């Protein structure tokens, strides 16, 4: 994953084929018109259809997530195959079982459905193009290594001989121990040493089908030596650096200077080395990976053309070619726009499978060669949907909104000007008035700097400015388009909602690579969300925030949310975050892993299969080498001294120690 960068924000492009984009406006930023402000005429009753449109849940959530008549998000873990749960009620039930928020809920049925879908897409494509070969997918373990998930994957994948892909030695250990499906493939990628290669080769003796993919030129010699030493004929593959490359964030995963894979001259060297060692028959697989989240199908088509030709040429050079592994990259439509925007994709899984199958069939037919077994290493597309991160809002901070008092005659001119601006704002002139108000405010700050304005006068001027802004924002929301000048205003005026969550722990890609995940309330969806908010997390880091949200066009800088009600929790869900987030999460500010539950649908409702408790404070302190006993002892000694000096009462010292010890054994997040 790349470093942090400011993202360019391109206009989304419509799909170049296949799917129709939803009715986007031709240019400008389409904004959700619906949430009217307090100042607007009383709107008609808010409907769940309006919430559906606002949060785009049908776009990214279908067929797993929707909204019910009670205004709650529901989950249908088996997709179109029936059965659904009210997510809000589920969260309440889990809370009663002492599973506090934030909580990661995994739906194993969704995982099963994802595996079914990708296999069914390839089956259909194989039937449609009369492809005389099969598809055998593998799950790249790096996408989510959690044991329960990998075990589920292997179990659900069994009917399809679905295998695993390892990208490192630890992942190889997982794959070797977990994969027990006869005939399923174990693709061995990543940097390899002698031990890695020997272990993979020996696994053939266990009845496994490991395929060692040569990614670095040094690995060729290691593989030849290991084969000679062990007397095992391995199945070998080569990873090609294609010149076709992905677009967007992972575009540089391919190309001549990519981190992994062999260039064409290196592939030729490999063929010669294997031939000299009398092992050319071992070379059976061609692999490429052009980067994750391929958003445009045209990129895949181009890669398929190039890869098919390399495959055919390898055959002609005498390799015993059997497999073509198209890597990962199958995208997830995070914003539901069906475009080639980085958070979307302009093709369906079926389009993807069709293009892979058709390209290989055509190329092999022309070359008069048997077709290979097709392999894909789709991680994101399989693991993203299965988990929902649920968190609560602890409080909010708003820009004060007030109806200002008229100024006294002797008040400062700048104050009187601002008040006059405030009273003159109309639906016709609000943009002009916004510029006036902004200029007056800047003048007020300057006057203050030169000592011409007192602190109370400056405060009055600033409050008047915010009153103007409130009035302007309220009027602008009735427009179809927000003028560019007012875009920032929406952001500046946004409420801050404080999440009981660490972005660094639970959604590191939001922080690291500006990833977009759909976020929405789990309830109150039959109520109008009158607030515009950005989200701030629990860490003391200004980067611990979310201020980019999915939108039909581009991204939006504020999320429509409901005003908090006293004594009532407000739950938000972050969706499609089942790939890559958990393992890349870090302990910034020592917020640990969240609680996790695995839920399976049953005819009567659901069953909790596993509960994985989140880290306790004691555990995260252990990661940084603190000894909890020593820490308690330190506090105890300090209280003894304080008692001796009469600085603390016995009661206070007991309370302090109790709190200290209870905190250590508790959750790292706030109790709600
Ligand atoms: C990361 C990776 C994958 C998974 O990619 P997705 O885009 O998540 O499907 C597959 N293959 C290789 C070699 C990878 O490095």
Kindly state the percentage of residues in helix.
Answer: 25-40%
Number of helices: 22
Q: What is the mean predicted local confidence, pLDDT?
A: 91
How many beta-strand segments?
23
Structural class: alpha/beta
- Ligand kinds: pyridoxal-5'-phosphate
- Alpha-carbon Rg, integer: 29 Å
Summarize, please.
The protein has 22 helices and 23 strands. The protein is α/β, with parallel strands linked by helices and 672 residues long.
Label this structure with key terms.
alpha/beta; 23 strands; eight-stranded parallel beta sheet; 15% strand; 22 helices; binds pyridoxal-5'-phosphate; ten-stranded mixed beta sheet
How are the SSEs ordered, and which strands pair?
Layout: H1 48-55, H2 57-61, E1 65-67, E2 73-75, E3 85-86, H3 87-96, E4 103-107, H4 108-128, E5 138-140, H5 147-157, E6 163-166, H6 169-178, E7 185-188, H7 194-202, E8 209-214, H8 218-230, E9 235-239, H9 264-276, E10 283-287, H10 297-316, E11 323-325, H11 349-367, E12 373-375, H12 380-383, E13 387-397, H13 413-424, H14 430-449, H15 455-476, H16 484-493, E14 495-499, H17 503-506, H18 508-513, E15 519-521, E16 531-536, E17 545-546, E18 549-550, E19 555-556, E20 559-561, E21 571-574, H19 581-584, E22 595-602, E23 605-612, H20 617-623, H21 628-644, H22 650-664
Parallel strand pairs: 4-22, 5-6, 6-7, 7-8, 8-9, 9-10, 10-11, 11-12, 14-16
Antiparallel strand pairs: 1-2, 2-3, 4-13, 13-14, 13-21, 15-21, 16-17, 16-20, 18-19, 22-23
Helix pairs in contact: 4-5, 4-11, 7-8, 10-11, 13-14, 13-15, 14-15, 15-16, 21-22
Bound molecules: pyridoxal-5'-phosphate.
Residues 140, 142-143, 167, 189, 289, 292-293, 327-330, 377-381, 579 line the site of pyridoxal-5'-phosphate (PLP).
């Amino acid at each position: 994953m790349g470093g942090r960068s400011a993202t360019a924000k391109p206009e989304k492009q419509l799909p170049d084929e296949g799917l129709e984009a939803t009715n986007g406006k031709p240019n400008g930023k389409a904004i959700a018109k619906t949430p009217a402000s307090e100042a607007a005429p009383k709107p008609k009753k808010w409907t769940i259809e309006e919430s559906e449109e606002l949060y785009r849940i049908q776009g990214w959530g279908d067929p797993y997530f929707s909204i019910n008549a009670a205004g709650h998000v529901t989950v249908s873990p088996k997709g179109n195959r029936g059965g659904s749960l009210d997510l809000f009620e589920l969260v309440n039930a889990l809370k009663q079982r002492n599973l506090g928020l934030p909580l990661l809920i995994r739906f194993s049925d969704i995982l099963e459905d994802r595996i079914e879908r990708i296999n069914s897409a390839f089956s259909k494509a194989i039937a449609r193009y009369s492809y005389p070969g099969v598809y055998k997918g593998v799950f790249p373990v790096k996408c989510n290594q959690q044991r329960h998930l990998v075990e589920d994957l292997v179990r659900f994948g069994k009917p399809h001989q679905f295998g695993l892909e390892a990208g490192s030695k630890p992942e190889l250990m997982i794959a070797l121990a977990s994969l027990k499906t006869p005939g399923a493939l174990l693709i061995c990628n990543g940097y390899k040493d002698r031990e890695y290669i020997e272990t993979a080769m020996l696994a053939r003796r266990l009845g496994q089908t490991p395929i060692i993919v040569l990614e670095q030129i040094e690995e060729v010699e290691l593989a030849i030596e290991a084969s000679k030493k062990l007397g095992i004929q391995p199945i070998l593959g080569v990873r090609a650096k294609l010149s076709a490359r992905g677009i967007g964030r992972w575009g540089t995963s391919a190309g001549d200077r990519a981190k992994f894979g062999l260039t064409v001259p290196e592939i030729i060297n490999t063929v010669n080395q294997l031939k000299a060692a009398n092992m050319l028959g071992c070379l059976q697989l061609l692999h490429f990976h052009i980067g994750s989240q391929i958003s445009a199908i045209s990129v895949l088509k181009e890669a398929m053309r190039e890869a098919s030709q390399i495959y055919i040429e390898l055959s002609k050079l005498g390799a015993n070619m059997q497999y073509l592994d198209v890597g990962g990259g199958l995208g997830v439509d995070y914003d539901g726009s069906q475009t080639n925007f980085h958070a979307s994709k302009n093709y369906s899984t079926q389009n993807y499978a069709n293009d892979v199958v058709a390209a290989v069939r055509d190329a092999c037919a022309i070359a008069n060669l048997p077709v290979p077994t097709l392999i894909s290493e789709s991680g994101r597309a399989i693991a993203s949907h299965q988990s929902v991160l649920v968190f609560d809002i602890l409080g909010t901070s708003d820009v004060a909104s007030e109806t200002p008092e008229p100024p006294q005659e002797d008040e400062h001119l700048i104050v009187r000007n601002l008040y006059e601006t405030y009273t003159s704002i109309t639906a016709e002139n609000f943009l002009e008035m916004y510029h006036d108000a902004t200029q007056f405010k800047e003048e007020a700050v300057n006057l203050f700097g030169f000592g011409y304005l007192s602190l109370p006068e400056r405060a009055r001027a600033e409050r008047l400015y915010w009153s103007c802004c409130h009035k302007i924002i309220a009027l602008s929301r009735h427009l179809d388009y927000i003028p560019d000048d007012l875009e920032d205003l929406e952001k500046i005026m946004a409420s801050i909602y404080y999440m009981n969550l660490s972005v660094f722990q639970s959604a590191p890609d939001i922080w690291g690579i500006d990833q977009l995940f759909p976020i929405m309330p789990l309830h109150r969806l039959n109520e109008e969300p009158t607030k515009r908010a950005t989200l701030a997390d629990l860490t003391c880091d200004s980067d611990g925030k979310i201020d980019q949200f999915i939108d039909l066009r581009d991204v939006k800088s504020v999320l429509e949310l409901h005003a908090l009600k006293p004594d009532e929790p407000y739950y938000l869900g972050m969706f499609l975050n089942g790939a890559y987030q958990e393992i890349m999460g870090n302990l910034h500010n020592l917020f640990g892993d969240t609680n996790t539950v695995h839920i399976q649908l049953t005819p009567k409702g659901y069953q909790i299969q596993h509960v994985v408790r989140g880290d306790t404070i004691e555990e995260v302190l252990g990661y940084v080498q603190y000894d909890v006993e020593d820490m308690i002892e330190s506090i105890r000694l300090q209280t003894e001294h304080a008692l001796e000096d009469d600085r603390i009462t016995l009661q206070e010292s007991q309370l302090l120690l109790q709190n200290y010890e209870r905190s250590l054994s508790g959750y790292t997040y706030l109790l709600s």
